[in-house]
Each structure stands twice: as C-alpha cells, then as structure tokens.
Amino acid sequence: MASAVKWDMESTSTNPPAFDQASLIRRYPQQPLRNQVAVVTGANSGIGEGVVRHMAAAGAAVVVNYVVHPEAAQAIVDDIVHAGGKAIAIEADVTSEDQVVEMFKQTVQTFGTVDIAVPNTGLQRDSRFEEMTLDQWNFVIAVNLTGQFLCAREAVREFLRRGPRPEISSATGKIIHMSSVHEFIPWAGHVNYGASKGGVMMLMKSLAQEVADRKIRVNSIGPGAIKTPINTAAWATPEAEHKLLDLIPYNRVGIADDIGRAAVWLASDDSDYITGQTLMVDGGMTLMEGFATGG
Length: 295
Ligand code: NAD
Prior knowledge:
Layout: H1 21-26, E1 37-40, H2 46-57, E2 61-66, H3 70-82, E3 86-91, H4 97-111, E4 116-118, H5 134-162, E5 173-178, H6 191-211, E6 216-223, H7 238-245, H8 256-267, E7 278-281
Parallel strand pairs: 1-2, 1-4, 2-3, 4-5, 5-6, 6-7
The chain binds nicotinamide-adenine-dinucleotide (NAD).
Nicotinamide-adenine-dinucleotide is lined by residues 41-42, 44-48, 67-68, 93-95, 120-123, 143, 147, 178, 180, 223, 225-226, 228-231.
C-alpha cells in the first residue's frame, strides 16, 4: 500500500512530513469509519491534526476543534473537503464547560450525531517542583484533565441520547483519550504534566468500566516522543534528536502519522473487544531502554 508520508530512517532532525490528504485516503480502501462522526480536540496542530486527517481519510465526517489559529484549522478542513471528505472547524476552549457543550451541540446540528470523540488537547508548563506556581499547576490540569473530562462527558451524553446503531458500528460510541507514556513513566520537572496524564489514565479506565455495559468503548493512546510543536526543542537539532533516540529502542522519533493510524484502528470495529486500555505508540520507550544492557 502506498505510504502518504515518506520517512527516511537515517535522517535526523528533519521536520515531520506534511500530510497529503488524497494519499491518505488510498490507505483506507475499506473506509472503516464511513458514516461516522468524529470530534477531535486541539486538531489544528500536531497529533490532533494527524488523528483528524486519518479519521477523515477513513471515511468519518470530522470536527477540527481549535482555540487559537483558526486559519490552521480552516486549512485542514479545506484540504479534507477538497479531497472529498466532510469536515468543519469549531472554536472551543476545552476548559470551558459552556463552549464544550456548544461544540457538541453544533456538531449534532451539522452532522446528526457523534460516534467518536478524541479528547486530545494537552500542553506543558514546565518548572522545577519547588518553583512551580499554582497557576502552572492549575492550567495544565485544566487543559489536560478537566478538558478531557468535559469532552468525554458530552460525547457519552450524545452516545446515550442517540443509542445503538449496529449497522454503523458495533459500539454505541468510542472515546480515545490522548494520554502519554507519562501516565506510566515519572517525569521530573514536569510534575503537573505527569499528574494530569496519570489522571487521564484513571479517568479513562473508570469511565470504561462505567459505560461498557452500554456498549461504549473508552481507551487511550500513549504517545512516546512525537515530532510536534509541543516538544520542538527535543528534536530540532541533531544533538537533541540523537539524545532523544537514547530513550527509543526502535531508534526513530515518532510522527503524527503514527498516532493517526493507531487512532483509526482504535475507533474502528477491528478493535471492538478492546476497552479500558492504553495503547502505547512509543517505539518501545516504555520498555525502559536503560535496562537493555544490564540492570
Ligand atoms: P500541540 O501543541 O501540537 O497540540 C496541542 C493542541 O491543543 C494545539 O492545537 C493547541 O492549540 C490545543 N489546545 C491547547 N489548549 C487548548 C484549549 N484550552 N482548548 C482547545 N485546544 C487547546 O501538541 P501535540 O504534541 O500534538 O499534543 C497533543 C496531545 O498529545 C497532548 O495531549 C499531549 O500531551 C499528547 N502527547 C504528545 C507527545 C509528543 O511527543 N508530541 C507525547 C505524549 C503525549
């Protein structure tokens, strides 16, 4: 199958390749998400863009949520629509209950329902612990954890309102939280971020347990190091990228395409018996490379 992104295994410090929506579509000849509607938050950048483009290529009508840079969201929408897909951009700050409720209302008005939600939004405000301000703590928890709670709750409300549609999908709804390897690996200097991702893990698992009997599947993706604006400093120079590779047994830094592919699978009926799990997409980062030669 033709690849929509070209990756040179030998290259270092390269920018992630731009997406080509028409090529992406050719990767999903069976359109596993056809007739479904997906809301992806923080979808105008990085991993969210990868997820929303893959889901659109796999046949879903998509909502490209953004809070800043409307032009970036609109460019993604235009690309998807130009390639024959369905997409709209909706502005909403995921920390605002009213705005999240309104985003789901607008989605249902436009596309009829929601089948897939990807609470993806997350950011870092790094600090040594003794210097961390309450604002830094609260901001990260609000975006990374409370924002994911609000989006998941609105999605569940819509899944329950609409009820099952077995002709469309075996599950009544699917939620895919964007977590991190740092729901599992502690991260000094990033205590607020680590706490938020640990919180996302138990949000996901507790919710999965609560709604499984209503045929709603809830899972997470745990990205390792993925080249996006959140972590440019970690891969922008050859020295930085080589240092990062010390943590990655598979010996390449990930790209948003890696996460987009995993997200489509987790949203599709191919993963129908999976709920309450974090799929680590990390090139083996959670294998603890430091133990490869002893321990
Ligand atoms: P990114 O900075 O490119 O994307 C984050 C997106 O969230 C942006 O579009 C940003 O505008 C949006 N956003 C921020 N605050 C928001 C708000 N209040 N409301 C709505 N949108 C808001 O970074 P990314 O790397 O693509 O991160 C996406 C997710 O992946 C995050 O949850 C992050 O923690 C997670 N993650 C990333 C990596 C990585 O290596 N890049 C690794 C592990 C986990």
